[in-house]
Amino acid sequence: MARSTEVERLSPLAPVYRAGPHGNFEDGVGVALSEPRPGSIVQLAAWPGEERRMIDAIRTVAGLALPDGAGGGVTENGRAAFGFAPGKFTVIDEKDGLAAAFAKAVTPAIGTVTDLSHGRTVIRIEGPEAEWVLAKFFAIDLSPPAFPLGAGRSTTHHDIFAQIQRSGPDRFDIHVFRSFARSFWTALCHGCEEVGYEVA
Amino acid sequence: MLITCPYCGPRDVSEFTYQGDGNRQRPAPNSQNLDAWNEYVYDRLNPAGDHNEIWQHSGGCRIHLRVVRNTLTHAVSSAVAVRGHHGGKP
């Protein structure tokens, strides 16, 4: 993806992104919000029966060993991967060029590679109240036994489709469609007001 | 109402889309049996009790599911992937 390095990427959150503390932060901030802006977001889909070879390709190209099981994932050295559907995986890299690397390793016999680097916006929420805030938006079990470190979940907030990865004990990365990102960010900020939040 | 997706686990029904009666048998595309087509398009069992249905987890992993739902109680007694070979593993 040499071309993507030539394009200045603009954040859809820019008009509403206000750095600093907000809401009820007098007693401390409950969560920190930020936009990680990874260089690469790639979606991989294995044909039925080719799941194992796709997982092998993720290990070879990204150096990430996915755990077995539905929604299993891992974060390591600025890269992350998780399953979001049967045979389908999202892989993220801080740097550009991941889609081109996967295009070489994932042959047409294994599955497909879709470069979503410009199509998704990642919103990070971190802090002791992150589970509490996200529980207002998503009807899923966010507790660590049900949603372990590294795991991914596909869900929706009303009609806004979201993939969520737990990237830390109290940190979640929420992938939303770029066109919905500003709306979701605004709603998330409202949801964070009661616990106090800081925008990085 | 919760549907337990074989990949995602129990999720609220709002994440799912009803895809229709799971009892229908589509005639062969070149079939000229009008009774069979009429049955496929119009006839429904409409039972008061367990009903075979097709749902899609459209607000999640997007797989299609065969669901058995009780039309009296909304209890879901079974939800399996239409494509059987995934079985919850990636």
From TrEMBL, chain A:
Gene3D superfamilies: Heterotetrameric sarcosine oxidase, Probable tRNA modification gtpase trme, domain 1. Pfam families: SoxG. InterPro entries: SoxG, SoxG_het, TrmE/GcvT-like. SUPFAM superfamilies: Folate-binding domain (SSF103025). This is Sarcosine oxidase subunit gamma family protein.
UniProtKB/TrEMBL annotation, chain B:
It holds the Pfam family SoxD. InterPro entries: SoxD, SoxD_sf. NCBIfam families: soxD. This is Sarcosine oxidase subunit delta family protein. It comes from Ollibium composti.
